[in-house]
Here is the input.
Amino acid sequence: MLIGGILVITRKNAVHSALALIMTLLAQAAIYLMLYAPFVAGVQIILYAGGIMVLFLFVIMLVSIERTEKERQFNKQWLVGIVTAGALGGLFIAVYTKGKGVFPEHALPTAEAQNTQAVGSLLYGQYMFAFEIASLLLLVAIIGAVVMAKKRI
Amino acid sequence: MDAMLHISTLHYLVLGAALFLLGVIGVLTRRNVVIVLMSIELILNAVNLNLVALSRYWQGIHGATALHGQVFAIFVITDAAAEAAVGLGILIAFFRNKETINVDEVNLLKW
Here is the structure.
């Protein structure tokens, strides 16, 4: 999965990047299955690896990729970017080594059969309002994408 | 099977942090807008991984139906879809106007 992530940010060809990202997403779906989250894994495969990546590939085909391959791949502030990311990584390492004991192991429940059912009843019960807001957000996103991709703007 | 049970929550969190860092490096250093958007997807996926791992941890405390983290991960996936649609729409509109998809040539808002 990390190899896929590294490939995403280093490939010259954007299509290769997209394929590496698909590999990363599928590996992450497998990790969701390891965490006993089959519904999220299914949503990950269908929505991410299926829907969003098709959108990405479509746009990659629309904009010209032949010209950008010959240009510089990294921008001028790449050193600053690496340093910033390194600082963030140092922060993560510090937090995780200091807080190693925060997560004691519990006796985890065994694989439950009604994961999807439980997620659904939470989604339509306690999180009803957030669910409706999410549908409104998707509507706004659809309108926004259509307006943005219109011929004359 | 016994080795698998020893993967703790912290391991998942470290994996999520590494993925997040890769995404940050991609956002900060690449010139191609499409790859920058893909790196944002990497970041969102790292967040999702943390959410699901902590949801698993929460299940250990509150029982098998405490799936709030997974529900939130689904909301994050929804947001990622909306963000990708709008971002790529903007990208297409920009490419029509300027014939480029490099971030450092995007200067229409510069004074």
